[in-house]
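Marked as duplicate of an earlier ticket. Keeping the data here for the record.
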Amino acid sequence: MQPVAVIADPHYHDVNHRPGVGRGEGVALRTLADTVESTRVFNESFAALPALLDDIVARGIRLVAVLGDLTDDGQAATMRAAVALLDRYRERHGLRFFATPGNHDLYAIHGRHQSKRFLDPDGGHTLVTSDPAAAKGASRGRVVTPEMYCGGYEAALTAMAGLGFFRRPEHLHWESPFGRDDALAARSFAIRSPDGSTVRRMIDASYLVEPVPGLWLLSIDANVFEPRDGAADPAAEASYVDSTDAGWNAVVRLKPFLLDWMADVAARARAGGRRLLAFSHYPCLDLLGPAHADEVALFGETGLVRRAPTAATAGAVAATGIGVHFSGHLHVNETALWRGGGRGLVNGGLVNVAVPSTVAFPPGYKIVAFEDGALDVRTVLLDRAPGHDLAFAAYRAELARTGGGHASLAAAESLGAFLGRHLAALAADRYLPREWPGEMAARARCLCLGELARVAGAADVTPLPFLTLVEDWYRLRKGRELALAVIPGDRLGRYRALAAAFAARRWPEGGTEAWVAGFLRMLVSYMDGAPSGDFRVDLGTGEVTARGGHACPEGGAVVFTG
């Protein structure tokens, strides 16, 4: 059976079209200041997505699943450019794309405004927005244009019509949760506000397609736009709570018809001998797994904690029998396993494969193939993307004007190096001040590993800054096995030894040493655990085994991550 390339969160941005102004080389470069504030990069997506697609073509793969956030932020001009790029690869290379919408591709019924700052040749910037009320702020000027507007369901799905959302002659089978009619008018449902006072008709974009004999692709629209109590204006962004944080927790609560349909699809796939590949934008299992308790104890309610599916949600999705689910949204390389009350994937088991993005560390995608009763998953690291440096000259002009930091980003020799440095900047400038306790954030900037080793009675006397360990901690958190390839082996060995030394002693509860012990315990959990790079999922038992024979840990109704 044909393999499938599974890509997530390309967040494509056309750097050569400034909405409301026109086309020109580099006229729509986003600022470096905005880039280092964001968990994803912007301008580099213009080179990364074609490089990813070229790699897919070179491997002879023709089926591509896109797990949402195809576009930067759903802007009309960006959507046109992204779809046109995919159309070129379909026409020239025969690629067939099947997408699910992400939270950055559309918004509710009528859409929402978007505003972005674009660099000018001298390093200054201009605000380009769809919102007439948006203030230009520190920008030297403002351009208002509808090309920046992010559409709602009808506008976005019409633009992405060729990505599986509607029936095509070459499809062997196509259906939605509502039947065989692919008209958007036939694919809506009622959604209520918490107190029931506000009811809206919302489109659901889910579909099932058979692109080649014996393979079913199940695209699940896990976006939920819940009306707020008393929200009278259906066109206002503030009238809804979107599912950026809620994800599958909101699906289980507000779109239960999807679970019934998924169960029916899974049963029909088994009965008919079809191989089922299910995907949505959001993870349906907690990707923190065993590290969840430490995450809460050390950092409180972080983004990963807020976005974690509950045990009830995991159980509800597992009960549908889909077995294996692929997700994006969090820009991480990860595998999570849920063991239900029974044994095997058809008896309450579920595997969630989180696919990395190409606009955050580590840049990559998955190749999936059904072989001998198993699902074979390989991870491709996309280190190089020709043109990754297209914005570097503009970044240098911006830095010369503002005196800002992070100049090393504008000298990265590859996409992978750029994203690695970007993550290091996030660790120092975003995660430390926003998520860490103030005292620990301050100490992280001045401690070295040798000092920590002395506290724990270990032998390490290296002056390696603790901040380097912090950067590597985030690399491992996001990349798992992919990060092991870019962190020097001697550093990994020091981290293990330090973690073991802290784990061997009892520390006063609530003290700095106990905090460091928990932090290091999380690091080890990121280094070990379930395989997340190249592995196989037994479609009967649900066992996840790495190429080297490392099996996923066993347990009861618990999520395990690697």
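See parent ticket for discussion. The longest strand covers residues 364-371.
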